[in-house]
Each structure stands twice: as C-alpha cells, then as structure tokens.
Amino acid sequence: MVSSGRRWLREQQHARWRLHCLKLQPLSPVPSDLEISRAQTPKAVDVLAKEIGLLADEIEIYGKSKAKVRLSLLERLKDQADGKYVLVAGITPTPLGEGKSTVTVGLVQALTAHLNINSFACLRQPSQGPTFGVKGGAAGGGYAQVIPMEEFNLHLTGDIHAITAANNLLAAAIDTRILHENTQTDKALYNRLVPSVNGVREFSSIQLARLKKLGINKTDPSALTEEEVSKFARLNIDPSTITWQRVLDTNDRFLRKMTIGQAPTEKGYSRQAQFDIAVASEIMAVLALTDSLADMKERLGRMVVASDKDGQPVTAEDLGVTGALTVLMKDAIKPNLMQTLEGTPVFVHAGPFANIAHGNSSVLADKIALKLVGQEGFVVTEAGFGADIGMEKFFNIKCRASGLVPNAVVLVATVRALKMHGGGPSVTAGVPLKREYTEENIQLVADGCCNLQKQIQIAQLFGVPVIVALNVFKTDTRAEIDLVCELAKRAGAFDAVPCYHWSIGGKGTVELARAVREAASKGSRFRFLYDVQLPIVEKIRTIAQAVYGAKDIELSPEAQSKIDRYTQQGFGNLPICMAKTHLSLSHQPDKKGVPRDFILPISDVRASIGAGFIYPLVGTVSELPCYIMFPKLFQSLWFMGFNKPNSLLNFSKTVLGQKKSSRWSLSSDHVVLILSLSFYNLQGLFNHLV
Amino acid sequence: MVSSGRRWLREQQHARWRLHCLKLQPLSPVPSDLEISRAQTPKAVDVLAKEIGLLADEIEIYGKSKAKVRLSLLERLKDQADGKYVLVAGITPTPLGEGKSTVTVGLVQALTAHLNINSFACLRQPSQGPTFGVKGGAAGGGYAQVIPMEEFNLHLTGDIHAITAANNLLAAAIDTRILHENTQTDKALYNRLVPSVNGVREFSSIQLARLKKLGINKTDPSALTEEEVSKFARLNIDPSTITWQRVLDTNDRFLRKMTIGQAPTEKGYSRQAQFDIAVASEIMAVLALTDSLADMKERLGRMVVASDKDGQPVTAEDLGVTGALTVLMKDAIKPNLMQTLEGTPVFVHAGPFANIAHGNSSVLADKIALKLVGQEGFVVTEAGFGADIGMEKFFNIKCRASGLVPNAVVLVATVRALKMHGGGPSVTAGVPLKREYTEENIQLVADGCCNLQKQIQIAQLFGVPVIVALNVFKTDTRAEIDLVCELAKRAGAFDAVPCYHWSIGGKGTVELARAVREAASKGSRFRFLYDVQLPIVEKIRTIAQAVYGAKDIELSPEAQSKIDRYTQQGFGNLPICMAKTHLSLSHQPDKKGVPRDFILPISDVRASIGAGFIYPLVGTVSELPCYIMFPKLFQSLWFMGFNKPNSLLNFSKTVLGQKKSSRWSLSSDHVVLILSLSFYNLQGLFNHLV
After folding, report:
1. What's the pTM?
2. Coil, strand or helix at A208
C-alpha cells in the first residue's frame, strides 16, 4: 500500500527533478558553436528521460542522444496540473537575427541548472535542405545550445522525411486521379473504386462518408444510378486550381518551376508545378498544431488541395489517402527529446514556416512538457520572427488550437537592433557593421526603443506580462544596457534584464530566470485579439491596426475574391496567419522603428484548411516572390546564415577550419572524415541570395 | 585474470547463443502476413542484441524493435573467424515470385530456433514509395517473416530518406554549377571557389587534389595563370550527358519526365530531367557495396554524374560535395537489426535495384553478421531475381567487392514455376491460375525441371554446392514433390528438400537447415566467372554464354561506343551488372525453360562508377522502358504485388478487411485508425501496370 501510494505520488505529482546537470567551463573568446557542442558529452537520453519522470515504456530511444516520447504520457498525467508557459519572442530584428533561440536555451539552463526549477525548452526542428545539415543557428549558439548539434541538424528522428513522404504521396494522388478521370469512363473508374473482390462489391467506410457528403443515401454499390456513379467516381479537379505542391528537404533552385507529366505514359496531361522546401508543407503545420493521432488524421483529411470545376474544395479525404498519410506520420507525431549543453531537457518538434505558416514548434511537445515539469515548473518555447508576427500567431493560432494559456512573454532585444530602429545605418548580411554599432551611441539606442515599446504594447494586448531580455553583445556599453532596461520598464515591461548566456551559459541568464519566475507567478489575464467568428476581412484589419499600427488595410481584387470564396466554402471562421516581412512592423522592410499612417496592402489570400488558418499575403506580389513563390529561396535566407553572417563565419571557420577544409571527427564511428564542403559549394548553391 | 580471460573469450569467440526464441502457434488456414506479424510480440531489441553478443555501446536503438549496429564491432572482432555464408537464389520465376525471402527467413528460424545453431538473415530494405509502406513481400511471409512488419516497411531507421537527401543534394549541385558557369566570368567563379576569408585565400584539400588532377602544381591561389584559373574553376559539364537523376521514395508517374529550371531566376537554362525511385540511386548501390565509412566516402566521390565538353567524366568529387554526401549517410551505413517471428536476428540493410544495380543487401551487414554468428554459425542472404541474374551478380560483384567466400547456395523452386517452364499455360498476375497448376501434372513438372537443372549448373560454375529448396504449395502432390527432389539431385544438387516454412515456420525448414549445414561443412571451391581485367565485351560475352546459354552477343552501335568511352576513361576493369529480364534465361520474357541458340542483344551500356560496375542493357530499348527508363514503373511491378497477387490479396484482405476498409490498430499509440487506403488508391496510382 505504502509503496504503491508512493509510486502514485511520484507519477502524479512532479517534485523537483533530481537532475544531474552537465558542468560548463566557458572559454573566452567563445569558440564556434560546433566546437562548443562537440566539447560537451551529453547524458544518455534514457538517463535524462528517467530523471524527468518518463517511464521506460513512454520513450522510444533513437541512438544515444535522442528519444521520441509517446503520447500515452498525456493520458497518464491528465490530472497533473500544467507548469508555467513562457513564450520567447523578439523585437523587429535586423537581418542578422537577435538571438531568440539562444535566449530560450539559456533561460532553461538558468532555471534548471542554476535555480533548480524544473524546466523544458520546446524548439523547432530546422530544415536540413538549405545547408546540408551543417549549420548553426536553430540549435541555439555559444554556451546556450542543444546538443549534439549535428544530430539536431541532420535527419533528427526523420520527422521531416516522413512529412516529405506524406506530402508527395498526396501530390502523386492528385495528378494521377486527374489523369484517370480524363482517360476513363465513369464505369471503369467506378469499377476501380469499388472493385469486386471474390465476387463481392462493398463500399469502404471512407466511401460511405463520401456518399453521404454527396447526398447519396445508398450502401449497395449496385444500386447507384448512372448519374450517381459519375458523381461518386469523379472529383473533377480543376488542374489550374491545384495548390498542393511537391516538396523536398533540399534547396534545389531548378525545381522552383517546372513542367511535369511529359512522359508518353502521361498522355499529354502535363502541367506546370513546383517543389517547395519540405517544412513549407501544410503537413508540417498540421503536425505543429495537432494534439492527438485522431486529430492529426482529421486535419490531414481536411487539407484542401484544389477546387473542382464547380469551385468546391477538394480534400485529401476526397482523394482517399487520409489513412495512408496518417500511417506515414504515426511516428513523426511523437516529440523528440534532446538536451541543452547543461543537460536540461529539450523537445525539438515540428518546424513550420514562420510566414506562410505560424512558425511555432508543436502543441504536443508543449503539452507533454507542461505535464512533465509539474505545476511549479516552466516550459519555454519560441515564436519565429518579431513579436508582431510570431507572437501574434502563437497567441491567436497556436494557443487557440491548444487551449493552453501563456503566463509570460520574454521579449528579446539587442542594442544593435535598437540602434537600427533609432536611425542607424542599414545592417546587411555579409557587410561589416558600421561604427555606430560597435561604439557607444546613446541617442540611437534611445530613439530605437520605440520599436521595443511597441512590441511590449503588442504583448500587453493579449494580457500577458512581458520581460525584456537584452541579449548583450561584447560591444554594448553599460550606459546603453542601462538605458534599454530603464526605457523597457517605463514602457510597461514587468522587468528588463541583460543576458549573458551566449558567453557563459545559464549562469548568464539567472537574473532573467528570476524575473520570469516572478512574472509568471502573478497569474495571466490572457485573451485573444479577435473572435474567429468575425468576417475574414475584420480579422485581418484588427491585426493590421492593433498589432502593426496600420491605418487600414487595402485588399486587391484577387484577395477579395479569395476571401469571398473561402467564406462561401465555409472556411470564414478560421484564424488568420499573416504572411508579412519580419523586418518591419509594416509591409515595407526598410521602414524601421514604428511606422505610422500606412495602409497594409493584402495582395492575395490563401488557406491551409487542415492546419486551420487563412493566410493573407501582405504587400505587392513582386515584393514577395522570395517569401511565397520561392519558399526555398526564403528558407535559405532564413536558416542558411546569409542573414546571420556570424553563424556562417563560425561554420566556415570551424567546419572548414583555418584551411577552409578541416577534419571533422564523427564521434559515432571514431572515423575522421574530411568534410569537403568547400565554401564554394555553400556559396555556389546559394549565391542567388546575395 | 581469470575473469578478464573469460571476458576475452566471450568477446572473441562466440559460443552458441543462449537465445530466447519466440514460440509459434501456427494457425490453419494461414492468416494474412499482417495478422501473423501483429499476433507476435517481438523481444526488445536491446535484449536480442545482448543475446547475440553485441556490447551496449555497439548498438544504437531506434524505438523498441530496431537498432543500428556500429561498425566498431568489426574492429573488436577482427580476429574472430567468419561463420558460414549461404546465398538464397531462385530458378527463373513466374511473375508471381517463388518465395526466396520466405525461404531465407524460414531457414534461419530453423537453424537457430530449432537446431540451436547461431544464424543471421541479411535482407534488403524495400522501397516505401510504391505502396505507401503498406505491403507484404519483402519482409517474408506466412510464418517466416521479419517483425514488426510495419516497422520493416515504413521508414525503418531512415536509410532510404538519407539516400534521397544525399542524391538530391548532388543533383542540385550539378544544375546549379552549370548555371553559375554559364552566367559568371572565370574570375567571379574563382573568387567564389577560393574566397578571401579575413584577407586570406587558401585552397582546401579537395581543391588541392583537383589542382593535382589538372596537372597544376601550385598551392598559392594568387599564383595561378588566367588559363589555370579557368581550368580550375570550370567543370564545363555538358548538360546533355547528365546521367544523375533526382529521386523520391514515392511512386509519382508525373515526375517520370519533366522540364526543370523554368523559373525566371534560372535564366532560361531549363532542361529535361526525371525522377527515379530512391532505391535506384547509385548511392543505394554504394551503400550496399561499401565496407567502411572511408570507403563509402571514396565511392561517393568517384560517382560519375556527367561528361564534360571534352568527354571526360565529371564526378561528385569534382563538384566538391563528397564530404556533404558522406555526412548525410553517416548513420545509414550502420546495418539495422530486427528479428524473425521466432525471435532470431535479422539485418535489414540496403536495397539496390536488381536490374540496374546488383540487387543484394549490404556487404557490411553480411560482414558483421559473419562475425556475430561465430565460426560454427550461418549467415543467410538473398539475391534478387533468378540465379542467372541475382546469384551471378552476388558472386561476381558483391563477393568480389567484399572478399567474402560463399559456402553454399540454396536454390528456391516451386512446382508452379517448374510447370510453367515445362510448357504450362502462361501465369499472369491478377488472373486465376489454370487447372494445370492446381492439379497434379507430372509431365509438366518433369519437363520444367530443365530450368532447375540449368540454374544448378550455373551455381556450379562458381564452385559452390547447391541445395534445392522446394517451396511447397498446398496444391502440390507427393509425386510432384518427390520428382523435383529426385531430378534436382540427379542434376548435381547436393540435396533437394521440400520446405513448409510458410505454413508452420522454422519447423517446416529443419530438413533444409540440416542439408545446408552439411553442404557448408564440405568446404567451398568458390571461383569468379571472369577476370575483371578482361575487356568489357569479353566479360559480357562470358556471362551471356556461360550463364544465360546464349550463342553470342550483339552490340548496338550505341553500346559499342559507350564501351569504347568507358574503356578510354579507365573504367574497363569493372565487373558487369547485366540489366536483363528475370522472367527468362534469355532476353525474351516469354521464352521459358532453357532457351537455346539465341543472340543476346546489348542495346546500351551504362556505368555506376562509384558503386563499381558497368551495366549493359539487354534487349531492344522498346522492350525495356519499364525496367530502365521508368524505374518507378518497374519498381511497382516488382515490389507492389502486381507480380505477387497473393500478397496483394493478403494486403487487401487484411488491411482493407472484408469490408475493404478495416481498422488497423497502431499498437504504438493504442489508437485505432481507419486505414483509408482504398483499393482504388492502390489500383489508381498503379493501374498503368496492368
């Protein structure tokens, strides 16, 4: 009795973990990300899993340092209260990025390794394509990283590969279906759909559902009239309306636009199509927003891939592939457990685009982590882009889907970005920073804090307390740091704290961790910005005005007609996922600070029905090609390091070495490999970016 | 001392495993493959690993039932004598397949679970594409299967995904390089290749190797003349000679032929290209033939992707991506451990095409297994197609690459196939078998044994003893079975044994196991069929005459010119990998039995330089499109089940259920899923096959 009661307690109520933290001995100057990662030996992942209260049958180990966590845990701990939920967002960044991932990792290192508070970081999985898996950035950086970095960046546990497989299966089904409908009679199609197996013909349950949808109340395949057979057998997809693209996790510019179906076997039914980067697949957004296998299946089935010739949406379910997609994704749905440099737990799960999707890691990882940390613990997750985009989507899309209530927002700022907003010269990837950024300049900082103030106000719209985390660079002066913290608090931040995690790890973020703990204890008055039942236009206008500070919005005729169509199709009550530049609060990347009096142009509107959002494209089409038309190109910019020259330089210095081609020891096999990825190959494949 | 000595013994010399075998309770009639698989609970893979002598740090667990085995084991056990090496091959099959995989699995179940002899089965990983991961066949069948079947068929540990990533990275590098060379000056290219990093310009080691290859003896980037800069910077790839295709593990007919590079950013440099199925990538053949990470890197670098404008081969190394490819493949190189229905160990590793590649699982899996079973143990592996193709390639290509010496060949025959060779009516997928096949017909069997005799003689060319395994079907009569065994022995088989593994598991193959053990104890007089130093034409002729029984070969002008080119390029001394139909000993699928007096037409010749073979295409091009031009189409035929209606029916009966859409319980999450893969979707996507 006593022992089973004790076990019950242990299972239901998480006390502080007895976590064996890994010690850091930070070097100065700070070595490259890869050197730091490789210098630390991670704990065996099963040890970590045990330390944080996972049962042996709740994990599936992948190698020594990664494990998938089964969703059954949510059932076991369903009566356990959730921990505190903290979002890391940022001010409007320079093209170089301001360090949200490092703050996220640094904060959990501080909470768990230094304050002995249970905490979890939940991060996005990066695309492998643009950099062949060898890059810094998404895993954090400096002494605030997820390790091992190469496992994080290469394949992980195959989730993106599963998405690729599922996405492309659906793509193949679309074109093949059109071909068959174009080349076969109603009867032939029907005989294939409902074949006679050992003399018996029966509808499958997915087909019965389709009959119901079509208003045909019959269950005997032989009872359908000719007209009903035709209605049942033909999806009548209009090829010009296909929005479902093939994907690859490779940055292959020659697949941006192509003509497919040119083999004689395809009988002339060729059409123009494109490949997107795998993480741009709607299936990635579905993975990020789902909360169970059953829900994922529903969402996958709802995905709209085209319209039929009557303008009605055609879904994956109509194509009959929902089950196959779900089976391919059955392992990908389980979050991936890894650890920080200091041995604290991290989930890496899902990595949807931050523009055409919502840019947040998975709901499931957050939910599981919130149970594992226990009521007094913390889950820290990150939203892509500036707070005006990533945080707004986190609240209005992700929290709406999950039902989770955030307790605090950490808003990451840098002196560099603030100086830019204050009127400093433009910051460009690959070009050395101007003097204004490397020397003290109080006036620029003071003027630039308008952006910080605005982003704080945006967070406050949602009723959540804001802690400003100033990510300190070596060149920042005491006066600059003090000024930012002072102005942030004056603008309504709960607190504002300088952070030094990059150079010394969690120890450098202890003050931030204390401030977050205090803010989160105050209780949240979280509210959504808009009611999803509002018309699509109203929801867009609300975001544009309340968040971006626009005077109004302006819809192109195309956008208006799409809105009408989606509304008529019954998709009007979905939340909005704005596809806007992250380099300005407005639609114009060069408008820094807090732009005013602008009209936000909505050039087009698209929909991810399975993921569950409408995404308006902001700006003229010609401004957006690299964001929307060529996600790979954009993806490169974002992940590759061309907007983060430091990580690129770190990469080339470390991986390519002083001699630009150095030995990279693969610890797993104790074989030394010449990593022959010359700078040219990076540069060559991606030089369309510069 | 004593204890360390004992440990040494245990580590160096494998005694009989103390393996906990899983009990079978075979049902009659035999349920579907999936039902059988799901009714058995596999051992935890770490338990299995320990039972067979793997140390804890030699495995990387993937979930509960799969693990990767590290290559470091080969170093630890390098002084351990190898076990016996047994190949399972087959007679010329009907389009329905004759059961080589089930015999392979049944044989190890008998050896280990019933005779207490250490044994390992080494199998190929099947493509996931053609059937969305839901098919039978490659995992064995009936009570001779690898479990869990769905893990085997879905993703496994991601090896094929890694191949896809590496293959497509190389493809992207080719087109991008051509674009850059077409649009940039020598100087601009050179500056990208050898950039100034912090004011310093240096060649990487891969670039120094390239300089050496070009005969430029300089190490200072600034010392090159203009002409040398141009020579160094330009690969001058001739786009019309590109043989490297993109791949996907999806059966997507619209990607068979397409025009890529149509986005404005590609500046008009569009060209026609195609996608192949992922397992057709040369990287898969490299994975199957390599014996270490260093060797894999060399092979990947040697892969020829095109010719330059002077007709010289351009390699992956010339493109500078060797290291990146190797890094992407660093985990894929480790064999995957699974188990049979009776709990005996299996490696599943690599699955190259059996036509354009050699159709055998990996050298590394065999090498590791041969150490693990110990000197008295057995490793059983399978070769694709009939013995005239799969076995010939196993000996001349795989054994040549590995240096391993086979001890015995198991030749699988069925009464059904023999009747076909004896003049029985044609056997067609999807059409019920004619009476001749379901009723006793001694004459047809007697006449058909000519094919069996010929295949026995082929094996004897290599000096290896042959045991005939007659895979018994329910309709086979005692007289038929006895006749086959009698004629097989008269033809020189060491033994001939009826097998019942499909219906009762290893117990049904004990007699075969005893025969194999005895044959293998006799010592092998293995020899290659030809000397690789012979001219390409002579090697082709030797195979055609000695193996197929052709009178001679006839080269098309294209084939002759390719042979001349490869010889001139220095590739004349590679072994030969014939791309011939498996449905006849000749090039004509309808010529059954032992065709005579035919001239084997060689329509074209291609090369996989990294894998290390030349592959002549046999037959006129118009006969081969589905084999060579459309590997996906062929792949479908091969793996999908259209040539194995039983597995297709099993699939549809089990997965789709009596109602053609049934519930498929995903044990991992205890969630019941409607598997909505209707018959139509299979049929629809693949109906170009029938």
Report:
1. 0.89
2. helix
- Residue A335 in contact with residue A172, Cβ under 8 Å? no
A74 in B contact zone (CB under 8 Å): no
For β-strands B408-413 and B466-471, DSSP reports them as parallel
What pLDDT is stored for residue B7 in this prediction?
60
Residues in A closer than 8 angstroms to B678, CB to CB, are 193, 204, 206-207, 320
Residue A476 in tokens: 């920042």
B151: its two tokens: 């893990």
Whether A84 is catalytic is: no
E-strand ranges in A219-296 read 246-248, 258-260, 271-273, 275-277
A641-674 pLDDT, tens digit per residue, is 222 323 333 333 333 222 222 222 222 211 112 2
DSSP state, B226?
H
Identify whether the C-beta of residue B341 lies closer than 8 Å to the C-beta of residue B505.
Answer: yes
B621 lies within 8 A of chain A by CB: no
* Helix or strand holding residue A186 (H, E): helix A186-193
Percent of chain A's residues with pLDDT above 70 = 86
Inter-chain contact B685–A173, Cβ cutoff 8 Å? Answer: yes
A residues 4-33 lying closer than 8 A (beta carbon) to B: none
Q: Nearest by CB to A254, which of B157, B175, B257?
A: B175
Say if residues A497 and A516 touch (Cβ distance below 8 Å): no
Catalytic, A385? Answer yes
Both structure tokens of A333? 């749905």
Tell whether A635 is within 8 A of chain B (Cβ): no
Q: Which helix (H) or strand (E) holds A419?
A: helix A415-421
What element of type H or E holds B247?
strand B246-248
| Token representation of residue B472 | 């018994």
Nearest to B413 by CA among B462, B481, B364: B481
ipTM entry: 0.87
Cβ contact (<8 Å) for A260 and B265? no
Tokens of A54: 């996972």
Residue carrying the six token digits 């309808």: B590
Provide the 10 A C-beta neighbour count for residue B367: 24
CB contact under 8 A, A297 and B666: no
Closest CA to B181 of B364, B340, B39, B309: B309
Low-confidence ranges of chain B (pLDDT < 70): 1-14, 129-137, 197-198, 429-430, 620-690
**Amino acid, single-letter form, for residue B284:** M
| Band of residue A495 on the pLDDT scale cut at 50, 70, 90 | very high
Q: Which positions 477-506 of B are in contact with A (Cβ < 8 Å)?
A: none
State the best of B68, B159, B204, B208 to mutate against chain A, taking most chain A CBs within 10 Å. Answer: B204
Instruction: Tell which residue, B449, B494, B442, B502, has the closest CA to residue B471.
Output: B502
Q: Which of A624, A626, A633 is nearest to A686 (CA)?
A: A633
Chain B contacts in chain A segment 177-196 (CB below 8 A): 177, 179-180, 192-195
Q: Is B124 a catalytic residue?
A: yes
Given A43, A70, A94, A102, the catalytic residue:
A102
Q: Which of residues 303-322 of A touch B (CB under 8 A)?
A: 317, 319-322
The single-letter DSSP state of residue B375 is: T
Give the pLDDT of residue A621: 37
Q: Answer whether residue A416 shows pLDDT above 60.
A: yes
Phi/psi at B609 (nearest 5 deg)? -75, -35
| Cross-chain Cβ contact B202/A659 below 8 Å | yes
- The answer to whether B296 and B283 have CB atoms below 8 angstroms apart is no
Residues A406 and A85 sit within 8 Å (Cβ to Cβ): yes
Nearest CB partner across the interface for A677, out of B323, B661, B674: B323
Strand, helix or coil for residue B383? strand
Cα A524 vs. chain centroid, distance in angstroms? 24
For A662, other C-beta atoms within 10 Å of its C-beta total 15
Length reported for chain A: 690
CA A44, distance to chain mean position in Å, is 27
